Amino acid sequence: MPARRSPEPHERQRDPERTRQRILEAAAAEFGEHGYAGARTRAIAERAGVNQQLVSYYFGGKEGLYRAMSQQWEQRREGLAPPGTPLPDQLRNFALEALRSPAGVRMFAWSGLQWTGPDDDPDRAERSRMLGGGVDQLRELQAAGRLPAEVDPACLQVMLMAACMATTTLPHVIEGLTGADPRSPAFVAHFADQVAVLARLIGLDPQEPQTS
Amino acid sequence: MPARRSPEPHERQRDPERTRQRILEAAAAEFGEHGYAGARTRAIAERAGVNQQLVSYYFGGKEGLYRAMSQQWEQRREGLAPPGTPLPDQLRNFALEALRSPAGVRMFAWSGLQWTGPDDDPDRAERSRMLGGGVDQLRELQAAGRLPAEVDPACLQVMLMAACMATTTLPHVIEGLTGADPRSPAFVAHFADQVAVLARLIGLDPQEPQTS
DNA sequence: AGGTTTGTCAATCACATGATTAATTGACTG
DNA sequence: CAGTCAATTAATCATGTGATTGACAAACCT
């Protein structure tokens, strides 16, 4: 009998960490597809291949699971925009995120509609920390005179983010307007390019290394 | 006793048309706030001040009510963009819609996330009918050489729509970035102006009556 | 090995939800 | 005024839902 002595964590029959992770992944998928109200705890357990009770055991119920998972996603989002990247590319990358982790983008969209106010928003801190950078870049651009004074950088940033998420938030509009499948890799890529084009149109190009 | 003979419809104790309408309005509010899955039939009945059963009586249940109401909203949306209006103003108006009928805009946003495909989309027809105009204007603009060839007019239109809806779809981002209340009339108005500014930045201004 | 803790499961509960049924009330007809 | 139909209500149902309970089994400790 091959009764091994010290099984590697990933081979163990009982691996709480792995189970936790599986539940979180399943939750992201389910919540992403149906939103908080539409998601079913049973469905999450099934997706994860575990017993439903474990959701309560590890996260204290549906709400706790939602919080844990959304927080995890907010943190993951922080690494999304490397500081040095030119804005058009940064935006294109964000638009492409709909391809890399559709569930994450969808969750982000749901959370916007569910948002009720600054209070009871557990992810407020992570979010504002993550979003500061983009606005700063726009402010610099404006200070350099490359953006009209009438532009409010924060608003512009928000509008561009909304634009990037359109394949997720407005698929019905896209389908009705172009006939294309808003979620197909081909279209998302095309759309991401168009976001970059828009950014360039506004004049967010990286300037050639300073003439004066 | 003032037993009047022909009471005006709105004074009658029993007025099916009025009841129908009250239910539809209540439904818009409830569905707008919580989305389809989150909305409660009981809450709709209470808002409307009628018995819950009437929802089934008039609309055949929650789903029927949702369909009826969303269709009504799609139709109402058609009158939103008068043909002659310059694009920047048209966009500003759309952004201001978050003030005039928040429920309508929110419903539109929910429907995007719930959207599963061209099939089982009852409002497809109305939507595409309503959206055609904007893209045409952009195409003309492009044909006139006032918009780079690399721009895909349909995508641009979608991105601008998404931007207009940002006070509704990304309130958490707005709050975290500006500290302002994303739903306050003051901010929505400011944001709508910024949308117009963006439109002008892209060059969607109405051209002064042709020089050549 | 024996006992304790921790991870997992099956079975079940209490409750909210959407729907149904049947009764009631008001309006219109002849 | 009786009778009929439409509008509205109250009471109840079947079911899906998230949560709980208690058994039990694998790992850990000595």
From TrEMBL, chains A, B:
Record keywords, A-Z: DNA-binding
Where would I find the HTH tetR-type domain in this sequence? 17-77
Q: Which residues bind DNA?
A: 40-59
* Top-level division of the source organism's lineage: Bacteria
Listed name of the protein: HTH tetR-type domain-containing protein
**Source organism of the structure:** Actinoplanes palleronii
Q: What does the record give as the organism's lineage?
A: Bacteria, Bacillati, Actinomycetota, Actinomycetes, Micromonosporales
